[in-house]
Amino acid sequence: MRKEDKISIIAQLGETLKAYPHFYVVDVEGMNAGATSDLRRKCYQNNVKMVVVKNTLLQKALEASDVNFEEMYGVLKGTTALMFTETANVPAKMIKEYVSKKATKPALKAAYAEETVYVGADQLNTLVALKSKNELIADVIAALESPIMNVLSALENREEAASAE
């Protein structure tokens, strides 16, 4: 590969890293064409962009980033795919679905989700449980709304009881 091509790919990866708030580094080594095609289809259905990359080019793109991704460099071995997403836990749920079917690949190598670096396949359950900012806001609103609804319900019951007398 020519040096100009490598520089172009590194720049493209850098732009994609900036464009998406979350990404996963996934081991896809040894997956056959059918399994890879199925994974790509699921990624498309879940609004996840999947790209197979060369580890050295990915490391250079990560090094050029404003964020410190140094923890990830150790997992950049073998065949690597990147999964870019707007929702932090979607790729983790997809990978977990494959793992539940006793498939060994794809396997999580690392992830950058909710401004935190996660390294290792043992982090998969943590990533599945992550909630997006919108989900957290909805939980807070529901928690605040619940006591108010209880008070309103009690007042309605009291008014109904008073009017029945």
Describe this protein's structure.
With 165 residues, the protein is an alpha+beta fold. The protein has two domains: 3-130, 2-Layer Sandwich (Alpha-Beta Plaits), CATH 3.30.70.1730; 131-165. The protein has six helices and five strands. The chain has helices at 3-19, 33-45, 55-63, 90-100, 124-129, 133-164; strands at 22-27, 49-53, 80-85, 107-113, 116-119. A five-stranded antiparallel β-sheet has the order 2-3-1-4-5. The radius of gyration is 22 Å and the shape is elongated. The N and C termini lie far apart (88 Å). The mean pLDDT is 88.
A few lines on this structure:
The protein has two domains: 3-130, Ribosomal protein L10, N-terminal RNA-binding domain (Alpha-Beta Plaits); 131-165. 53% of the residues lie in helices and 17% in strands. It has six helices and five strands.
